[in-house]
Amino acid sequence: AVATGIKRVKPESAVFTYQGDGDLASIGTAEIVHAAMRGEKITTIFVNNAIYGMTGGQMAPTTLVGQKATTAPYGRDENHAGMPIRISEMLATMSKAAFIERVSVHDVKHIIQAKKAIKKAFQLQMEGKGFTLVEVLSTCPTNWGKTPIEALKWLQENMIPYYPLGNFKNIEEVK
Fold first, then answer.
1. Which residues contact 91 (CB under 8 A, 6 or more apart)?
2. Count of domains observed in the chain
3. How big is the CA angle at 27 (ends 86 and 160), to the nearest 5 degrees?
4. Quick check: helix, strand or coil at residue 144?
5. pTM value surpassing 0.85
6. For 58-66, what is the mean pLDDT?
7. What is the span of the domain harbouring residue 123?
8. Considering the domain boundaries, does residue 33 fall inside one?
9. How far apart, in Å, are the Cα atoms of 84 and each of 50, 87, 111?
């Protein structure tokens, strides 16, 4: 809501939000959905580490089935907690969303791809094309109980199969 207000008052400004999965995919879901539906000319960088990383490692809306968290010590149970939400796929269905892409930062190749996606999102925002979002799959070694190297491997082997990388919407490619 704040980003929307800033962009509407100062449309020449590059406006972005930097949000984690606990924020955007939980308490901020209504706001992000409606910003995309309205085509707000803002960019969102959505960091998905599949856990509430800054508040103690609780289960997030993006926590994978079977993934352990302080509030799910036996792992996420899909029959109790449902399935992890795929925000990028959902927002890509919004007609006024201009650019939705999921990237990862688990190795150099993917970091370079992430930088390109973020640059494209800002470019389209500044061209007035509409709402843009880049979802960044990221690690949380501390709350995952892994070393940094183990966390990078876990992201690649577990998160990417459920949250596939790629572009879900690019207004420039719509015919």
1. 32, 33, 36, 97, 100, 131, 133, 168, 169
2. 1
3. 25
4. helix
5. yes
6. 98
7. 2-7+14-28+43-49+58-173
8. no
9. 9, 9, 24
